Structures are given as structure tokens and as C-alpha cells.
Amino acid sequence: MLSSRTGRTGRAALCAAIAASVATGGLALGVTPASAATPFTITSISPHLVSALSVNQVITITGTGFSEEDLAGVAIAGCTTAPSYIVASATSLVLKTAGDCAVGTGRVVTLTDAASNTLVSTPGSATAAVAAAHKLDFVAAPTISVTATTHPVVQANTSAHTQLDQVRTAPVGGGTTVKVTAGATPFVNTAAFPLKATLGGVALSSISMPVGGASFTARVGAHAAGAVALTVTSNGVTKAFTAAETDFAYAGNTVTVSPSSGPSNGGTVVRVGGAGFVTSGGGASTVTVCGVAAPVTVLGSTVTSLVVTVPKFADATALSADPVDGPCTVKVTTGSTVSVVGAGSTFTYVAQG
């Protein structure tokens, strides 16, 4: 039997052990702490720039201790609705925004555990390095102009036309320069945030943007025929627009010319082969040889070939009477679509003695 002194000493030691266990979040002798210590840590957030007011923007939180059982909720400052989330692993938490996160900088992410403890992404005593790793800014996403009078993507060399008349197609071979008009949010193109864009998944090249960012011009690459979607990366964030919003398509086909040569004084009757030719109406197919119109006769019921009479070469160049022979490009225009220039779309004038 313990002495009264020994008993008091033993009880004191036991109480100290229980207190220590509770303080570390553990259990001792069936005692459950009122509030377990938060098991999470947050080491970084990626990406640091996220599109504001855009649904399903993915944000990855890296840290430790993540589990579905312990994580009770996630919140992002400036977002009305809590993001959906999934615990990808004990060190990775993936969030998706609900589309109501307003523009703002330095947004804090708060994790809540099952015991209602919370952990914020940027502690008040954070160093500059920690703050940089935890940086989370919501940036206005790129916009494009979609109105009854302004189309977002048009061929840049049609400025003499009204917006309603501007050409909204490009040959499948690429090379066309297009103009993309911004909506409410101007485009940004800087060394830190270079402007990028794709049409149908094909990157646009030679991007040039005037001061103010109301629009930019770029050259399209080759793509199969059909309507295409536009994706723009501006100010560090990316926005995808549907084909309907983009209102632009690749079209046209490579034409063939037979015979492919004739006298320079013109008059040669040639057959122009292709597809999708139109025989009547405002969008009827027309043919030019070196830029000069050639009279068209339809050949066949499937409208895959046209018969034209080649004009004089001197008329075609309209530059000088010498030389009077050489190759000329044959183009077929159907509506706003111009045929693709290829090896078989050339007619060569032969000088007459």
C-alpha cells in the first residue's frame, strides 16, 4: 500500500501525463480532447493567378496531413460559394471554383478540420518566401466582343468592309492574318504575361497588339475545314471560347487547273476542279486569274468543276507589257471563302511569237 505522500505524487504524475497527451492531440485513459490539433500544413498554392468569375478553375494546394476523414471544409476569401474539392493524396488537395470568385489579390484559403479547427494559407507572420508560395490572385479573364455588329474574329485585311461584311473564314492551309477584338476586358501582352492564342488548338503566330489592348492581330496555322474554338491567354490566365462564340471557321479547298498553260493573249478554256462550288445567288462562285475575273460556266451537276476562259496576261498583270508570260494563281471565291493556293492552282501564260 502506497503512503499518502506516495499516492499524492503518483496522482500528480498521472494528471501531468494526461494533460501532455491531450495537448498533443492524443488520447489517454479514455479521455477525449475537446478540440484536436489541426493535422494539416499548407506549403504552396498553384497556380498563383486564377480567372475570376470563372467556373471550375483548378487550384492545387500542396501540404501534409490531408485526408477525407479529417477535412471538413474549404473556403477561399472573396468567393461567395465554397469550392468543391478532392483529396488527391496526403500531400495534395485539388479545388475547383464555383464561378463567383471576384477579382482580387492575396486571397487566403482556409481549411477546416473535423474538430472545427482552422488553418489559413498565409499566416500573419509569414516570410516573403512563404507569402510568395501562398500567393493567390483572381484576375479578370480575357473577353472577346460578341455583338450583333462586331464579330470577335475577322480577317485583318478586310478593314475596308463593315464589321457585318468582314470575312470570318481562313483557308485550311493557314497563313491568313486575323484580328481578334476584345470585349469588356482588354488584352494584356507583356514580358511577364505574354499574350497567346489558339484557333482549333493550333497556336496563332506573329501576335501584335496595339496600345490599350482593344484587339490583336495574328497569323493562323493550317487546320482542317470547319468551325473552330478560340482560346486566349492574357494577363497570366486562360479563357476558352466555344466555336459559336468565336464565330470563325476554316474553309476552302485546293483547286486544280487543266490545262495548266496557254497563250499569253488569253482565250484558253480551262477546267477548274474543286468542291463546294455555288452556282447562283449572292454567294455564287467566282474565278480570278492573277486577280482578274474570268467568265464562269458550270460543268456537271455536282458542282465540283467550273469552266472559265482565261483573260489576257497583259490585262492580268496591269503592270507592264513586258514580260508577257509567266505563272498566275487561279483562285475560286465562294461567298467569303477563298480557295487554298496550291501547286495545282497555277495557270502559266506562254509568250506568243
Topology, pairings included?
Elements: H1 4-23, E1 41-46, E2 49-51, E3 55-64, E4 71-76, E5 84-89, E6 92-98, E7 109-113, E8 118-120, H2 128-133, E9 137-139, E10 153-155, E11 169-171, E12 177-181, E13 196-199, E14 202-203, E15 205-208, E16 215-219, E17 226-227, E18 230-234, E19 237-241, H3 243-246, E20 249-251, E21 256-258, E22 261-263, E23 269-273, E24 286-289, E25 292-294, E26 296-298, E27 305-309, H4 313-317, E28 326-334, E29 337-338, E30 346-350
Description:
The protein folds into four domains: 1-34; 41-139, Immunoglobulin-like, CATH 2.60.40; 153-251, Immunoglobulin-like; 256-350, Sandwich (Immunoglobulin-like), CATH 2.60.40. The chain is elongated. The strands form eight sheets. Strands 22, 24, 25, 28, 29 and 30 form a six-stranded mixed β-sheet that branches. It has helices at 4-23, 128-133, 243-246, 313-317; strands at residues 41-46, 49-51, 55-64, 71-76, 84-89, 92-98, 109-113, 118-120, 137-139, 153-155, 169-171, 177-181, 196-199, 202-203, 205-208, 215-219, 226-227, 230-234, 237-241, 249-251, 256-258, 261-263, 269-273, 286-289, 292-294, 296-298, 305-309, 326-334, 337-338, 346-350. Strand 26 (296-298) and strand 27 form a beta hairpin. 10% of the residues lie in helices and 37% in strands. It is built from four helices and 30 strands. With 353 residues, it is mostly beta strands.
